[in-house]
Structures are given as C-alpha cells and as structure tokens.
Fold:
Amino acid sequence: MNYEYRRQLPAPVQALVDEIEGHIGREIGVSRNPQMGCGARANPKAVTIEYRDELTTENMLHELLHLRRQLVNGIPVAGFPSGTKVGAPEGAPEDSESVMAGVSWLWFDLHVEHAAIFETMREMGYPEDLSAYRAAVDKLGSWDAPNRRLVAFGLYLVLMRHGTIGDRNNLVARLIEFDLLNPARELDTLIRKLEGRKVDQIVASVRAARIKQACIQVVYYDGKQGTKEVLSVEQALEREARAGRVN
Ligand SMILES: [Zn+2]
Structure:
C-alpha cells in the first residue's frame, strides 16, 4: 500500500495490510473514485480500495476485512450475473448512484459478510458506523414487497448483533408491521448455525428470500494466484464437499 495511506493507519490496521499483502504477494492499491462510495475490488489483476470523499480508519479497516475474508481466507461471496435486473427502491430516481445503493442494500450476502466484519471491527476498537442501517430501518416501507423482504433480512442480521437496544426495538417494531419478524428470525438462526459454511449460508438465504437459486453466482478468489472462479450454487456445493467442508 502506498506509504502515504499506510502511515496514517494505526499499527493493528497496518499489520492487517501486511498480512493480506504478504499472502497475495502484491500491493493493495488505494484510489479515489468519485463514482462510488467506499469499496474494495478484488479484481484478479489489481486489488484496490476505492473511496469517494474521505477515507477514515474505520472505512479502511472495513474494506481490508472484506479483502482478508475473500483473498486470504478463501470465503466465497454470492452475486448476481452481470446484467441481472435486481431492482431499486420504489420511486427512487433513475440515476446510477441510487440504483447502485438499491442493489447493494438488496445484496443479502453483503450483510452476511458485514455481520462478521463488524464483529472484528468492534473487537479491534473501531466499531462500524451503523447510521446507514438505521436509516434503512426508517425507509423499509419504500421498497416493494420482495425487495423489502431481502432488506429486512440484512437489517436483522446486522442490527440484532451490533445495534443498540433502541435499534433492536425499532427494527422489531418495523418487522412486525410488515409481517417479517418470524422469517427474519428463522433465517438468522440458520445463518448462525451454519457459521463457517458460507455456501450453505448462501443457499439458506436464497431460499428465505425466495430468489431462484439459478440467479445466483458464487465467486471464489485465489489471492495468491490472482484468479477468480465463478460457479453456480450447485458447483460451489460440490467444491465444498470435495474440500470436506460440508457434512
Ligand atoms: Zn462492506
């Protein structure tokens, strides 16, 4: 990582940079990209952290933990094939930024990752700012029903683990209003039970969200080789079985 960025980070975060770069044998790039909020790209050719305006220690740590899970720990992420229409909040303006925000909120897998990442951030003394999650609780009614279901699951997963008592009470009240409390609770129980078995967590969440399994791709990165493997859910389950990770 560029010296100017690296030197501003506290020692434990610098150690995380070293751990990831040591494993992948490449530098993590950091660049400003006015088109997006803060995000990490594990592109096989270049691993970069991009940010729009400012980059706090918490932002950096958050993105580094995504990269460690994907590139060092080999934990796959779920996505939609490019070109899939995922949907945006009802009434949202058609500009690319709000569509992106809509898509990322729907991305249930992102919240499975976040539930784990926020835990590590808290343990390291840099808790995530949950204001985006709080705002999403207030806007739950602006989604159409299938999308609301998916957003509700993500909110439950993160806020019941990391929110304040007030956050949890607010969320429960909204979920009761939309009749989503029981399905969110059931999925959360499953996700906890399947801890460490990411592909099984993906299968459980896809079912609960009533998304067709064929619409989902499972992406594995090999940080050392700099390669990316895109599999169907079935292929990912076979891969896990071969690795002895499914029992
Ligand atoms: Zn994230």
